[in-house]
Amino acid sequence: DNHISQGNKLNIDGRRITWKRVVDMNDRQLRFIVDGLNGTTNGVPREDGFDITVASEIMAILCLADSLADLKRRLARIVVAYTFEQEPVTAADLKAEGAMTALLKDALNPSLIQTLEGTPALV
Question: Interior CA angle at 43 toward 29 and 1, to 5°?
């Protein structure tokens, strides 16, 4: 949305944005929405929707990545939209993979938790 409102140098077709928004709450009403209804200064009207955070492709990538470099490489390949010429637009095209990697770098580290039996476990 921001790239389109800032000039759309990649020629993204706003009707072919494949990346849904995510929220850490399950609300069926938000699965299919229409946004951008307040004129061109607040976006172009289009059908959109929300997924729950754990269903996001980013969470799958986080689980599969075995290093920070692998995480960045996988994030860069996410297809977020298509152009008017039907070409895929990736996170790398938007130069977003570095910021996403920085936000997720600590999530790669294991967490120490306690099981129901009271024993420690690394997750």
Answer: 85
> Which residues, given as ranges, of the chain have pLDDT below 70?
39-43
- Three-state SS for the chain is CHHHHCCCCCCEEEEEECCCEEECCCCHHHCCEEECCCCHHHCCCEEECEEEHHHCHHHHHHHHCCCHHHHHHHHHCCEEEEECCCCEEECCCCCCHHHHHHHHHHHHCCCEEECCCCCEEEC
Residue 112 identity (one-letter amino acid)? L
Of 87, 79, 18, nearest to 47 by C-alpha is 18
Domain count, the chain: 1
> Cα dist. 106→53, 62, 81, 100, 118 in Å?
17, 11, 28, 11, 25
Residue 17 and residue 81 in contact, taking contact as beta carbons nearer than 8 Å: yes
CATH number at residue 61: 3.30.1510.10
Which residue range(s) make up the domain with 55? 2-122
